[in-house]
Design brief:
The complex is a heterodimer of chains A (about 140) and B (about 500). Chain A is mainly alpha-helical and about 140 residues long. Helix content of chain A is about 75%, strand content about 0%. Chain A is flat. The N and C termini of chain A lie far apart (about 45 Å). Chain B is mainly α. A two-stranded antiparallel ribbon of chain B has the order 1-2. Chain B is globular, with a radius of gyration of 22 Å. The chains are: A mainly alpha (about 140), B mainly alpha (about 500). At the A-B interface, helix 1, helix 2, helix 3, helix 4 and helix 5 of A face helix 9, strand 2, helix 10, helix 18 and helix 19 of B.
Chain lengths: ~140, ~500
């Protein structure tokens, strides 16, 4: 089965799940008014179901995405989520330089000057502008 | 209408050295924050508004307009150089700007963006100054039925951008509308799809959703594509043909019709509250492609593509002030921030503003024109600097951009929930791109969703659900016909393209 058809089935599945479970559970039922709370979400979900089925029926896409690149992108996303979680607990000052440094090393950057710019100067500049000049809080 | 003395006094107030410095500072901040993906002029304006308390009203407006105008051009710089729009408005600029940069002409692409931005902005300002009253009357005439039909028209035009598969484009639009329904519904005030998160009562915030799907997803893709080599994010040749580093008069003049069309689209949409510069940019892009004799060259580095988007999104800034100054209705987030700043100064925007604060309003007009020249001047000076900044190794640019997106979203929402929303939508953006669903169509539908639902609800109340009553709304009917005609025409073009 091609990626086009698979993604069409996934979209249709999302629309169906929204119509059967999510919208009835997460939208308060109101029985008056022209546009009720569930009207637009249901219309959008029905459109997803219909368009997903059409895509699954007519899709003819060839090659899928680069699986390795997609996996790497998801790894970076997971890493960023972990850094944000740590930032919420330990604070921007401690986590931001480490977050950037680890990411730069992960990407293969070894030049001390660029490492200093990325992991030192950039977080420091953000801290000076946001916390110092603007007096706004940073995460943590 | 203020007398001639008031007009001259207002313009005289604007053209002072102190005010010029505020404009220069605003444009510099705007270009800088616009060039950094994830920050953007709106966020900079939001941060700056509380601090304008210490400034005079004219200085406040001059500074904020400088940030807004500089930021709109600044957003085009990373869009062109690293395919990462600094602002959602610049997403369309990347469609042709980035391919042109990839062909070794990054300076030509950014300069075209600058000239088109200043051209559209100046056109819009002149319209604002000369015919703001008649246009405000048209905007006043636009009721919910007309706004609903206008949004349908916008959707039908934007559908021309969905690429090879109309089905996937429409699915992306439906998903955008679905996400826009999160939060309190506009008619009954009941919470929807919030999954117990009270922070979502106001809906999914625009900045984290747009930055997540457009900027962070792109950064993650670029990080994933790196294979250990520390290379510049974009190669700017040191020695290149001078013709590739500038926009000649012939090239600029050749885009005059495209820029004029973009400026008109931006001005008309900007005068109508709620549509905004992102939709204007994409509508202008689609219409330029439609009008072109070489539509297949769009998306591959066509200067007309850059001119169309930048002239339109910049033209929105001036036109946004028409409903703001005449009716007190902000046409965009930026205009809403200007309202906040005016109210901090004790000035109430509305129909009486021209009478009670005529001198200030004409001072504002003078400052806006001045900001256009400053934008051009600083853009010319700063282009190479921004290009050098963005041309740093990818291993520095993208981790730093990721950090700035995180901090920027945190500042815009005030807590980490916004950052989590951004990361969730970065994942969604990755999945959509990997499977060929347009994130741009998704973001536009998400942005227009609340206005769409509200105007649908109001339209049904007004017409009593009777389509025949549309005949009582000729403007709405005309827009509806245009929407159907546009969808049909784009369908024909798409089939012919195959």
């Amino acid at each position: 089965m091609t990626l086009d058809r698979l993604s069409g089935l996934a979209v249709a599945g999302l629309g169906l799940a929204l119509l059967l479970f999510v919208i009835p559970d997460q939208v308060e039922a109101v029985d008056y008014g022209w546009v009720r709370p569930e009207t637009l979400p249901s219309l959008a979900a029905a459109a997803l179901l219909l368009l997903g089925l059409m895509q699954a029926a007519t899709g003819r896409g060839g090659g899928g995405p680069d699986r390795r690149a997609t996996a790497r992108a998801l790894l970076y996303l997971g890493y960023t989520a972990a850094a944000v979680w740590a930032m919420g607990r330990l604070g921007f000052v401690w986590v931001a330089p480490v977050m950037v440094l680890v990411l730069m090393l992960w990407l293969g950057e070894r030049r001390p000057l660029w490492l200093a710019v990325g992991a030192g100067a950039v977080p420091a500049a953000v801290w000076v502008v946001v916390a110092g000049l603007l007096g706004r809080g940073l995460p943590g | 209408m203020p007398d001639f003395d008031t007009v001259l006094a207002g313009l005289g107030d604007a053209l002072t050295l102190v005010n010029l410095l505020y404009v220069v500072a605003g444009v510099a901040v705007g270009q800088f924050v616009g060039a950094v993906p994830g920050i953007g002029p709106v966020m900079a304006m939001a941060i700056a508004v509380p601090f304008t308390f210490v400034m005079s009203p004219l200085a406040t407006i001059s500074f904020l307009m400088g940030v807004n105008k500089g930021g709109l051009f600044g957003g085009a710089i990373p869009a062109v150089l690293i395919n990462t729009p600094g602002t959602p408005d610049a997403a369309a600029t990347a469609l042709d700007g980035f391919p042109l940069a990839q062909r070794g002409k990054p300076l030509k692409a950014t300069k075209m963006a600058l000239y088109a931005s200043v051209t559209g902005d100046t056109f819009s300002d002149i319209v604002l100054i000369t015919v703001s009253a008649p246009l405000a009357a048209v905007a006043l005439y636009m009721g919910p039925v007309e706004v609903f039909c206008l949004i349908l028209f916008a959707f039908s035009v934007i559908a021309g951008l969905v690429g090879e598969s109309m089905t996937r484009g429409l699915a992306a639009a439906a998903f955008g509308l679905l996400c826009a329904t999160v939060g309190l519904d506009p008619e009954h005030g009941t919470p929807r799809l919030i999954f117990g998160q009270f922070a979502l009562y106001d809906g999914l915030p625009l900045a984290p959703v747009a930055i997540g799907t457009l900027a962070v997803a792109e950064i993650l893709r670029r990080l994933a594509a790196m294979r250990g080599a520390a290379r510049p994010a974009v190669a700017i040749p040191d020695a290149q043909d001078p013709a590739d580093a500038r926009v000649s008069w012939a090239e600029y003049w050749g885009c005059r019709a495209t820029m004029l069309r973009g400026a008109v689209i931006g001005t008309v949409l900007g005068a109508m509250p709620g549509i905004g510069s992102t939709a204007a940019a994409f509508m202008s892009y689609a219409s330029a492609r439609q009008a072109s004799s070489e539509p297949e060259s769009f998306g591959k580095g066509n200067l007309h593509g850059i001119a169309a988007t930048e002239s339109a999104n910049s033209a929105v800034v001036g036109a946004n002030l028409i409903p703001l100054l005449s009716l007190g209705i902000p046409g965009s987030i930026g205009a809403a921030l200007v309202i906040s700043a005016l109210m901090i100064q004790g000035i109430q925007p509305g129909p009486l503003l021209f009478e009670s604060q005529g001198r200030l309003i004409y001072g504002l007009f003078g400052a806006m024109l001045m900001a256009n020249f400053v934008n051009l001047w600083m853009g010319q000076l700063g282009l190479r600097l921004w290009a050098r900044v963005v041309a740093a190794p990818e291993s520095v640019v993208f981790p730093a951009a990721l950090l700035l997106c995180t901090v920027g979203v945190y500042l815009s929402t005030g807590d980490l929930i916004g950052v989590w929303v951004m990361l969730v939508f970065a994942g969604i953006g990755l999945a959509m791109t990997a499977t060929g669903y347009s994130v741009v169509v998704f973001v536009i539908a998400f942005f227009l969703g609340p206005r769409f639902e509200l105007s649908l609800s109001q339209s049904l109340s007004i017409t009593g659900g009777d389509p025949a009553r549309l005949l009582e709304h000729p403007v709405a009917l005309a827009l509806l016909v245009l929407a159907v005609g546009s969808a049909w025409w784009m369908g024909v073009r798409q089939r012919a393209g195959r």
